[in-house]
Amino acid sequence: MDAVKRRWAPYFFLSPYMLFYLAFGLIPMVFSLYVSMTSWDGIGDKAFVGFANYKYLFNPDSYFFKSIGNTLLFVAFTLPLQMIFGLIIASLLYSRWVKWKGFFQLVNFLPYIVTPVAVGLMFNLLFDWQAGFINKVLLHLGLIDEGIYWLGDPLYARLVIIVMLFWKGFGYTMIFYLAGLANIPKDLNEAAQVDGASGFRTFLSITLPLLKPVTVFIVITGIIGGFQLLEEPMLLLGGSGMGSSTSVIGGPDRCCLTTVWNMYDTAYGSTTRYGLGAAIAYGLCLIIAFFSFIGARFYRGEQE
Fold first, then answer.
1. 3-class DSSP state for residue 2?
2. Domain map of the chain by residue range?
3. How confident is the model over 187-193, as a mean pLDDT?
4. What is the mean pLDDT of the segment spanning 3-24?
5. What's the CA gap between 201 and 207, in Å, rounded?
6. Does domain 63-303 have CATH number 2.60.40.10?
7. Phi, psi of 40, rounded to the nearest 5 degrees
8. For this UniProt entry, which segments traverse the membrane (predicted)?
């Protein structure tokens, strides 16, 4: 009897988590998979359509691949910038010449913990066409004759989002690079200095190779986080600025429509097409799983 109790005791303690996961995790996922194969507006009866929703993703009207391209564009520009500046700032803060290291670490990390809603609204006000701070500064310096409609032009709108995501995310990479620098044995750098290597040569030959696992981790998490982008561009392009809110979902020519934003607008916007929204969600899930698999294999290969 005691052996039976010992065998089932772990399952008893795990049962609360398993019940919560079953109710709020597994069952919703299975239900959403079923919904992705139906035509449903959330109120009426569900009409089973098979893989029609998934086939519709290849239609340009679904904006699925356009949203993926926009998301990849933002990741491709912001992630390298975040890594480069994060590594530079981490190296400066880790050096012995910088004082008040804790203060500067906090200042650089604060943007990352600011809520996405606040970030989107703040940049909406900064780049507002009529009363934005950026336009006022440029007008005061005489660099422009009239205010630039930052969020009304596809190129400018994408640049604003890249700047916004870079400002918010480089503190994240800085923290991880600081942790990676702290784990590098100081004996290696001291031995290189004794052999006559310069600081820059030591950084290229010792520091960067030893930081490769941290870099791979940042790349994987950065890609996954980039594909989950929603609140910042949504609030930026539809915020409370006097003249910067846009009526088109995703900005002018849908140039800033991310994949999650597309899913949200499809399922909960004006059309309320839950089936198609669920199909977009599972398509995004496959893309994230693909990048996660590639990153995990690459990381495992580096470790071996």
1. helix
2. 63-303
3. 75
4. 83
5. 9
6. no
7. -150, 135
8. 12-35, 72-94, 106-127, 210-230, 279-299
Look-up of token digits 């998301």:
71
Provide the pLDDT for residue 242: 46
CA distance 22 to 234: 32
pLDDT at 194 over 80: no
Is 229:260 a contact under the CB 8 Å cutoff? yes
pLDDT digits 0-9 by tens, 135-167: 999 998 888 888 888 988 899 999 999 999 999
Name the β-bridge partners of 38. 48
**Residue 219: which of 281, 298, 159 has the closest Cα?**
298
Of 42 and 179, more confident: 179
DSSP letter assigned to residue 49: -
Q: Which residue type does 145 have?
A: D
Average pLDDT score, the chain: 86
Query: Hey, what are 154's tokens?
Result: 């596809």
> 53: Cβ–Cβ under 8 A, 6 or more apart, which residues?
36, 37, 39, 275, 276, 278, 279
Predicted confidence (pLDDT) at residue 171 exceeds the cutoff of 50: yes
Q: Which pair of tokens denotes residue 88?
A: 């530079």
Predicted TM-score of the model (pTM): 0.87
Burial classification of residue 120, based on how many CB atoms lie within 10 Å of its CB (0-12 exposed, 13-18 middle, 19 or more buried)? buried
H helix or E strand, kind and range, residue 38 = strand 38-39
Q: Give Rg (Cα) of the chain.
A: 24
Give buried/exposed letters for 204-234 (b at 16+ CB in 10 A, else e).
eebbeeebeebbbebbbbbbbebbebbbbbb
| Distance (Å, whole) CA 82 – CA 225 | 13
Q: Is the pLDDT of residue 253 over 90?
A: no
How many angstroms separate the CA atoms of 51 and 58, rounded? 12
86, 173 Cβ separation under 8 angstroms? yes
